[in-house]
Amino acid sequence: MNFIPATKLSDRSYVGLVLSQFLAAFNDQAIHIVAIFFASDLLHGYVHLPGFDQKTIVSIVTACFIAPFFLFSPLAGILADKYSKQRTIVFWKIAEVFITGLALVGFLLPHTVGWGWADSKTIATISAFLVIAAVFLMGTHSAFFVPAKYGIMPEILHTSVLSRGNGILEGTSFVSNILGTSFGGYLYFFLKNRADPLAGGEWVIGLTLFALAWLGMAFAYLVAPIPAASPDRQFTLNPLVPLAKNFGELRRSKPLVLAVVGIAFFTFMTLFVRQTLLFQGESAKELHEARAHLAEMTPPASSSNNPVPPAGATPDAPAQTSTTLLPTPLVPPSAQPSQQLDELWIATLVALVGFGVGGGVPWLAGCLVRG
Questions:
Q1: Angstrom distance (rounded) from CA 131 to CA 129
Q2: pLDDT band at 51, cuts 50/70/90?
Q3: How far apart are CA 124 and CA 142, in angstroms?
Q4: Which residues pair with 157 in a beta bridge?
Q5: Cβ contact 38:131 at 8 Å
Q6: For 188-242, how does the pLDDT look when each residue is reduced to its tens digit (9 = 90+)?
Q7: pLDDT, mean over the chain
Q8: Angle at Cα 44 formed by Cα 40 and Cα 50, nearest 5°?
């Protein structure tokens, strides 16, 4: 079967690819940021699970999303060549529907406390780990989807429009990352129930992502079927075999080495800044909790340093001043920063990282082209 690459970016296959990957990246980032907040509120704030403080949960959720890239990327590259990339894209978009369905179940589970099938803390724990599992599966989805997404570009687009097509694909990916992060953080802020963590409206986020996964799957079917690039490629489950082959090719090409190192460093810095911001936000939440706890435990201090002795007290008998000797809160309750704004602030900071990347890359590319 011969497939003629398109010479226009309005081609159905290209449009379907851009839209399906846009929604995939959106869901990736939305479920990632929401899972951090959701698991932190349940495992740390409600269940008080030993060993699961807020920063540990940030690390676990982020590791669950990134680990599949280390585990499955070599295998994903083989499958993208051995089988049709269009079929690979459609398969993983279908898988995304089931993954977001799992996340939706995790968000809905706390609302079943009244059914009596388990105690509330057990349900909260299961719910949080279901959402974290969905993050790992979305990372697996991306690990297999991304090689097919980029690999199919020269197969569906003519070389005359390939550079512009790649630019649009990458640009929309950054935009979707920003929107997904902002959407997840902001919507979680407005839907969470601060009085009862098990009665929040996070299921609305899960339902939205589930619907977007269905829409993305429909767009994936717009991509025309294309033949496999290398159907005879040897298949292996050992990730070291393709890695050794790839590193061998890298050693023979200095420009390729520089490109890979540059991409790796760029990705490292982006993830490092993002993770640092998440840690900073969770540390701020812990500080606010400590201040609020101190304010509750500390009786109000006397308004005067020299209180008037009670009636009947003699001049030689000191008045009761025990309350004046107690430490005052670091921040009065009326002046405490609102812990409720933490999720909103974290989402904003992480989104700004995306804006910086999205704005800086085109500028840098323009400088390189002019140089």
A1: 5
A2: confident
A3: 27
A4: 6
A5: yes
A6: 888 888 788 898 899 999 999 999 999 999 999 999 998 888 888 877 777 777 7
A7: 80
A8: 135
Side-chain half-sphere exposure of 30, counting CA atoms within 13 A: 28
Residue 106 or 298, more confident = 106
The rounded distance, in Å, linking the Cα atoms of 18 and 306 is: 73
**For residue 181, what is the enclosing H or E element?**
helix 159-191
* Residues in CB range of 19: below 8 A, 6 or more apart: 216, 219, 222
Half-sphere CA count of 113, side-chain side, radius 13 A: 16
Does 93 score more than 80 pLDDT?
yes
Give the integer Cα–Cα distance in Å for 192 and 344.
Answer: 12
Banded model confidence at residue 333, pLDDT cuts 50, 70, 90 = very low
Helix (H) or strand (E) holding 75: helix 54-82
Count the neighbouring beta carbons within 10 Å of the beta carbon of residue 325.
Answer: 8
Rounded to whole angstroms, how far apart are CA atoms 245 and 264?
Answer: 19
What's this model's pTM, rounded to 2 decimal places?
Answer: 0.78
Q: Which residue, among 171, 191, 228, 148, has the nearest Cα to 343 in the 3D structure?
A: 191
Distance, in Å, from the CA atom of 311 to the CA atom of 304, rounded to the nearest integer, reads: 17
pLDDT at 38: 93
Distances (CA, A) of 16 to 13, 132, 171: 5, 29, 16
- Contact (CB, 8 A) for 82 and 165: no
Compute, in degrees rounded to 10, the torsion defined by CA atoms 162, 167, 170, 175.
-140
Give, rounded to a whole angstrom, the gap between the first and last alpha carbons of the chain.
42
DSSP state letters, 83-143: S-HHHHHHHHHHHHHHHHHHHHHHHHGGGGGGG-SS-HHHHHHHHHHHHHHHHHHHHHHHH
